Recover the amino acids of this structure.
């Protein structure tokens, strides 16, 4: 990463640190869409552990007719459900045809996340009665979020 990108990522991380309940004593890592370099030529074989959290990023099987190597980042998508936001995927364009979806797969299967406040690459829109959050950025690493802290049920 360039120095400027590291500074940007550190600033966003500082703004987004989300702590779990105090009795847990652990911080949940800020996440970002995987870089195009991380995906490389792995295509639908791509997996990568989440940052400082249990779970992984995992490429979905390619749609019929989709093929090629990742050449650009399209966007990240999250869906609003009630008062929660659930991250779904990061989308990348392939050089031959189609797109590669990289799914957010936390171990808990709970995709509830917190998006950064203030000026960010995330925008909110409505589509087919759903609240949709879209992150469009020149680099996927700019699409950051944090897993939502959940109280433990003891």
């Amino acid at each position: 990463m360039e120095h400027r990108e590291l500074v940007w990522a550190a600033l966003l991380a500082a703004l987004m640190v989300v702590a779990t309940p105090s009795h847990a004593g652990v911080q949940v890592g800020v996440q970002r869409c995987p870089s195009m370099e991380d995906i490389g030529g792995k295509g639908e074989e791509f997996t990568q552990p989440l940052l400082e959290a249990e779970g992984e990023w995992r490429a979905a099987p390619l749609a019929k007719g989709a093929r090629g190597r990742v050449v650009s980042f399209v966007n990240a998508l999250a869906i609003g459900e009630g008062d929660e936001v659930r991250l779904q995927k990061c989308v990348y364009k392939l050089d031959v045809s189609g797109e590669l979806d990289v799914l957010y797969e936390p171990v808990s299967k709970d995709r509830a996340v917190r998006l950064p406040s203030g000026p960010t690459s995330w925008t909110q829109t409505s589509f087919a009665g759903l609240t949709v959050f879209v992150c469009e950025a020149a680099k996927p690493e700019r699409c950051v979020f944090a897993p939502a802290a959940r109280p433990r049920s003891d």
Summary: The chain has a mean pLDDT of 81.
